[in-house]
Amino acid sequence: MNSLLAKQLFVGLDRCTWLYSGAETPPLRGSLDAMTDYMHARSLGPIGREKNAEIELSCRRNAAALMHGKSEDIAFLSNTSEVISMLAQALDLRKGDNVVVHTLEFPSGILPWLALKERGVEIRVVEHEQWQVSPEHILNAVDARTKLVMTSHVSYLSGARLDYRELYRELRNTDTLLLLDVTQSLGVVPVHMYESDFTVCSSYKWLLSVHGAGILGINSARTADIVPKYVGWRSVRDMFSPDRFESFSFHADAKKFELGYPSYPTMYAMNYSTNLLLQTGIDNIERHVLALGGYLINELKTRGYKVMTSSEPDRRAGNICILHDRAEQIAQFLLSENVYVWGGDGRFRASIHAFNDMDDIRTLLGLLSRFEKEC
Q1: What CATH number is given for 7-27+281-374 in this structure?
Q2: Which pLDDT score, from 0 to 100, does residue 29 have?
Q3: What is the pTM of this model?
């Protein structure tokens, strides 16, 4: 099986096997050009600022298209952790309220809620079952005082893909909001931002971009009355209003969460990468990734590995996670052979994207066989 995106589009894929997209993706050559375009625009003073605004709007539209949403419902902050922390404060949770999380969640989706325990907010932690968490598991922890459910679409830890749309069908009939982190899914499988209340994503993983942006999508049908506790000049309708030393008004759309300028080098790079993803087609990328992942899972199981990720296509995306008591040693061994995977927490993870092909999978499997024999 050939790759969907030619390896020649990326810097460095001629000298390594990159199965590391759950951590970050290889840089696109087009992103290098795009960031150079930013530097040229910067040299043009006010004309460059006009170009920046055009690129930002295009990037906002692309992010919305990838999430089946509208550009006015997209905000750009610095990173996902910042976005989640801002939302945790904006919800104004009080003593007796509770938030539901689960044990497959990344720390950025846990820590902001733990910080609210001093206010008397209860954090309910749902345990996974065989590295999966179902909507039913989560809903069993929800009651009348549950203000929010926090979950990732795809787990960084096990590769489990949650049916958040089924979860939201139940939650939208209650007062409980859903905050969905799509950092491990956007760019490789379909995402629908209006089947959640808040959707957040990082820029540098499956979106094939660089560090510097946290994407926030809001579903105004249930969140219009929520305003941030922080404010900056980009948050307000008129920063130079006559009464600016006395009062202000937030934007009515997602921009109310933006404090200042985004990272424009990131905007340029992400505008290029999201254009590429949209042209390739997320449905095509999903089929490609699921096929390669299915082959890898079957081969790993045949060889006796304890695979955490389900073999069922609708319960996984690009991350394939394997339990192993020498996970970090495996990752270091593979690194010495120019094969990039993530290793730690008693597991190693091979992440498959559109630029991967069957040769990458066979290279990984061959080296794993060598590791078991030599180490």
Answers
A1: 3.90.1150.10
A2: 98
A3: 0.97
